[in-house]
Design brief:
The chain is α/β, with parallel strands linked by helices and about 725 residues long. Helices cover about 30% and strands about 20% of the residues. The protein starts with 5 loop residues before the first strand and ends in a 6-residue tail after the last strand. The chain binds adenosine-5'-diphosphate and zinc ion (2 copies).
Length: about 725
C-alpha cells in the first residue's frame, strides 16, 4: 500500500451533489483532467469526468475507479471551464452539465476514433447524354437538379422524394457526380458587397480578439453575404467557424449557401444518429472540419482552432433550451468567444432586447444594414380595422379585395395565422359551454380531416361530440380561426388558385415541405396559409402580399416578452414580401389598429419599437434591466406545488437580506394546469447578477416530495 492514496475528483451525471472522490488503484497512471472515467456509483457503474487530480484532503473512504476511458481529456479545458461556469450560472449540477455538453455516444463511453469520411453526399450534374429519355425516374432526378440549378445534398434529394438506389445508378452511369469539396469544382464566388455590407465586413474582419458585433439588417439585406465574407479570411488563416442557426432554419437551402461558397461543411441537428453526431464532433475537435453549422446544442462543440462564431437570427427562441439545463446557446457563444478571445457576430432583422440593450451600453458593436440587397424595396404596411366588419372565415372584405388584386397582378400571397387546426374552440350556442381539455387549463382545438378535438398542450385527442356535454343541445359552433379554416375560406373565395397550407400538421415530413416550397419557388400566383413556420428564413421572391389575420393576441398577453415576440414575428413574416423586383405590401387585420405598440411598429419600424419597449422594460425593472430567475414547481396536488415554492421563498428571503431582491409569488403559472399537474411559479428579480446568484445559491437543496417536479430557470424566456 502506498502511503498516500491517490485521489481524483469525478463529476458524475447525477442530480444533487454530483462531484465525488475516487482513488486510483495500484500503479495505474493518473487520468488527465477532462478524461472520462468509469466509476462505481450506488449499486451500478456510471461514466463521469475527471475534474481534479490533485485532491489535497481526501475522504477516508473512497471507492476505486473501474477504468480510465481516455488517454487525454475528452472535454478540453476551455469547455470544462464553460461547464463550471454554467453549473454556477444556471444552478445546475456539474455532472449533469457535463452530461449535456457531451454528445450522447461519448457520454455512453464510445471510443473516439475518427472513421474514414463517407464520400461527399453533395450531387451535381454530369454527362446527361447517358440517360435514356425513357428512364422516367432518372429523368425526374435530373429535371429536379436542373430546376434547382445548384448542387444538392443527398438528404435534400431524398427529401424531395428520390432514393439512394437511384442516385447510385445515376452515379454509375455518370449522369450525376459527387461534388468534391475542394479543388476543381467551381465554388460560388462572393457577391460584390453593397456599401453597407462592405462596412460591416471590414469592421468584423478588423476585429482583434474578442468583440461582439450586433448585425442588425432588415429582412433581405444580405446578412448571409456578410457572414460568408467575414468567414473567408478566418478560414484562409486556417481557423474554424461555428455558425448557429435556429432549429427550423437548418434547411438544405441554408446549408447549400455555405457549402457552395466554401465546400465541405459540417452540420449538427437533431435528426442525426448518435454516431453521426459524435463523428462530426470529433472532426471539429481534430480541426478536420473547417465550418460547422448547427442548432442550439452545437454551441458545445470542441474546436481545434475556432476563429469566429456567428449566430443567425439571434433573437430566435429555439436558442433557449426549455427543459433540463435551461441554457441560452446565444448567451453561451458570448462566453465562449470571450474565453477563446475571438469575434462573435449576432445577426438579426429583429434583435432581442437583450442585444439592443448591450449595444446601448456599449458592450456590443452595432452594425446596420438598412437597405435590401439587390435593390428590393421594403414592404409598406397597412392596417384593417375589424370592428363592425362581417368576416368570412376570418377574412374581411377589404382583405379579400387586396388579395384578389395581388393575384390578378400575378403576385403570390402569404396569409399568416398563429394557430393551426380549424378553430381554437367549439362553443354551444344554447348554453355557452366550450370544449376544454380535461387535463389542462386550455381549450380543445377543432381539427378537420380527420375531425377531432385536440389539446395543443398535452396532445389529448377526442372524437367530435354531436351534442353539448353540458346541456345536450346539438348546435355546436366552431369559434375563432385556425389555418385549416383560413384555407377553407380562401379556397371558396379563390377557386382555381393553388393553395398551400404550411403548418406543423401539413409538414410532418420535410419531404412535403420541400415539395411545397419547390412549387412555390416556381413563382406562379398562389396563396400560402401558415403559422410561424412561414416566417423564418424562407426566401419567396414572388410574394408581393403578406396578410396578418390577427395581430391582437400577442400585444395583449400578460407575458412581458409577448410584445417583443409579436413584433419580431410580424416583421419577420412581413419580410417575406417584396424580396425581388416587385415591392411588397403587408396588411394587418386588428380589432384595435390604434394599439400604440402596433402603431409604433408600423410607423417607426422594429428599431423604434424596440427602443420604446426597452424603455418600458427599464422603467418596470424587468429584464434586460434587472436579471430574473424563475422557480417553477408542478404536482398533481396543487397545494404540494404551492407549498414547496412558499418554502423556497422563505429560504431565499432568509439568505438574501439585501435590498434590491424581489421575490414575487408563488402564483399559478399562466397555464395553471398542464397534463393533470398544477403549476406554480416564483419570480426572483435582483438589482444585478451577483445579487441574483447569491440569492439563488441560498436555496441550497430544498427538500421535495418524489411526486413534485421543480426547476430553476435563469433568464427565463417565457413565463409559461
Ligand atoms: P437576409 O438574411 O438579410 O434576409 P439574404 O442573405 O437572404 O438576406 O439576402 C437576400 C437576397 O439578396 C439574396 O437573394 C441574396 O443572394 C441577395 N444579395 C445579398 N447580398 C447581395 C449583394 N451584395 N448583391 C446582390 N445581391 C445580394
Ligand atoms: Zn350547451
Ligand atoms: Zn391538454
Amino acid at each position: 500500500m502506498p502511503d498516500h492514496k491517490r485521489v481524483v475528483q469525478v463529476a458524475v451525471p447525477r442530480p444533487l451533489h454530483s462531484v465525488y472522490d475516487y482513488h486510483i488503484d495500484g500503479d495505474q497512471a493518473l487520468p488527465a483532467v477532462g478524461a472520462r472515467l468509469r466509476v462505481p456509483f450506488g449499486r451500478s457503474e456510471v461514466i463521469g469526468i475527471c475534474i481534479n487530480t490533485a485532491v489535497e484532503t481526501p475522504h477516508a473512504k473512497t471507492k476505486a475507479i473501474v477504468a480510465i476511458l481516455d488517454d487525454d481529456a475528452a472535454i478540453a479545458e476551455e469547455l470544462l471551464d464553460l461547464a463550471q461556469w454554467m453549473s454556477s450560472y444556471y444552478h445546475y449540477p456539474l455532472g449533469e452539465v457535463l452530461g449535456t455538453i457531451l454528445p450522447s455516444a461519448a457520454r455512453k463511453g464510445a471510443d473516439f476514433t475518427i472513421k474514414p469520411e463517407p464520400p461527399p453526399d453533395v450531387w451535381c450534374l454530369g454527362d446527361l447524354t447517358v440517360v435514356s429519355p425513357r428512364a422516367k425516374t432518372q429523368q425526374a432526378v435530373i429535371e429536379h437538379m436542373q430546376q434547382a440549378s445548384s448542387a444538392q445534398t443527398g438528404d435534400a434529394l431524398i427529401e424531395a422524394g428520390f432514393n439512394r438506389a437511384m442516385l447510385r445508378k445515376l452515379e454509375e452511369s455518370g449522369a450525376l457526380k459527387r461534388q468534391v469539396p475542394d479543388a476543381e469544382q467551381a465554388l460560388d464566388t462572393a457577391l460584390a458587397p453593397t456599401p453597407e455590407q462592405d462596412h460591416a465586413i471590414s469592421q468584423i474582419n478588423a476585429a482583434q480578439g474578442f468583440d461582439v458585433f450586433a448585425l442588425e439588417g432588415v429582412t433581405g439585406s444580405g446578412k448571409t453575404e456578410v457572414y460568408l465574407q467575414s468567414m473567408a479570411p478566418v478560414l484562409n488563416a486556417g481557423k474554424q467557424v461555428l455558425v448557429l442557426v435556429p432549429e427550423i432554419a437548418l434547411t438544405p437551402q441554408t446549408l447549400a449557401r455555405f457549402q457552395n461558397r466554401f465546400g465541405h461543411t459540417g452540420m449538427l441537428h437533431s435528426a442525426l444518429t448518435d454516431q453521426q453526431r459524435l463523428q462530426t464532433w470529433l472532426r471539429c475537435r481534430a480541426g478536420e472540419l473547417r465550418i460547422l453549422i448547427g442548432t442550439r446544442s452545437a454551441v458545445f462543440t470542441p474546436f481545434a482552432a475556432l476563429g469566429l462564431i456567428i449566430v443567425d437570427e439571434e433573437h430566435d427562441s429555439s436558442y433557449k433550451q426549455q427543459e433540463g439545463l435551461r441554457y441560452s446557446a446565444r448567451d453561451l457563444t458570448v462566453k465562449r468567444a470571450q474565453s477563446l478571445d475571438i469575434p462573435l457576430l449576432l445577426g438579426s432583422a429583429t434583435p432581442s432586447l437583450e442585444t439592443v440593450y448591450n449595444v446601448q451600453r456599449g458592450r456590443y458593436r452595432h452594425l446596420t444594414l438598412l437597405e435590401r440587397a439587390g435593390g428590393a424595396l421594403m414592404p409598406s404596411y397597412h392596417t384593417i380595422d375589424l370592428r363592425g366588419q362581417t368576416l368570412r372565415g376570418g377574412l374581411s372584405a377589404t382583405l379579400i379585395r387586396v388579395i384578389r388584386s395581388h393575384l390578378n397582378e400575378a403576385g403570390q400571397v402569404l396569409v399568416y395565422l398563429n394557430r393551426r387546426g380549424f378553430a381554437p374552440t367549439l362553443l354551444c350556442k344554447a348554453c355557452g359551454w366550450q370544449s376544454v381539455c380535461p387535463d389542462c387549463d386550455a381549450k380543445l382545438t377543432l381539427h378537420r380531416q380527420p375531425e377531432q378535438l385536440i389539446c395543443h398542450h398535452c396532445n389529448l385527442r377526442f372524437g367530435l361530440p354531436q351534442n353539448c356535454e353540458r346541456c345536450g343541445h346539438d348546435d355546436l359552433l366552431p369559434v375563432g380561426m385556425g389555418t385549416q379554416r383560413a384555407e377553407e375560406a380562401l379556397g371558396e373565395r379563390f377557386p382555381g388558385i393553388p393553395l398551400y397550407r404550411i403548418d406543423r400538421d401539413t409538414t410532418r415530413s420535410n419531404i412535403q415541405l420541400n415539395q411545397q416550397l419547390t412549387q412555390i419557388q416556381r413563382g406562379k400566383p398562389c396563396i400560402m396559409v401558415g403559422t410561424q413556420m412561414l416566417a423564418k428564413g424562407h426566401h419567396f421572391p414572388a410574394v408581393t402580399l403578406v396578410a396578418v389575420i390577427n395581430a391582437d393576441a400577442g400585444f395583449l398577453s400578460p407575458d412581458f416578452r409577448a410584445p417583443e415576440r409579436t413584433a419580431q414575428l410580424i416583421v419577420q413574416v412581413a419580410g417575406r414580401a417584396g424580396r425581388a423586383e416587385r415591392p411588397g405590401q403587408v396588411w394587418v387585420q386588428s380589432y384595435q389598429p390604434e394599439n400604440p405598440l402596433l402603431q409604433r411598429l408600423i410607423e417607426q419600424g422594429y428599431p423604434g419599437f424596440a427602443q420604446a419597449e426597452l424603455t418600458s422594460r427599464l422603467d418596470a425593472g424587468l429584464p434586460p434591466a434587472q436579471p430574473m430567475a424563475m422557480l417553477r414547481a408542478e404536482a398533481f396536488d396543487a397545494p404540494m406545488a404551492r407549498d414547496f415554492l412558499l418554502q423556497c421563498k422563505t429560504q431565499l428571503a432568509g439568505s438574501s437580506s439585501e435590498s434590491g431582491v424581489q421575490i414575487l409569488g408563488p402564483v399559478p403559472a399562466p397555464m395553471a394546469r398542464l397534463a393533470k399537474r398544477s403549476r406554480f411559479q416564483l419570480v426572483i428579480l435582483a438589482a444585478n447578477r451577483p445579487q441574483l446568484h447569491r440569492t439563488l445559491a441560498g436555496l441550497g437543496q430544498p427538500k421535495a416530495h418524489a411526486n413534485l417536479r421543480w426547476s430553476i430557470d435563469v433568464d427565463p424566456y417565457d413565463a409559461m
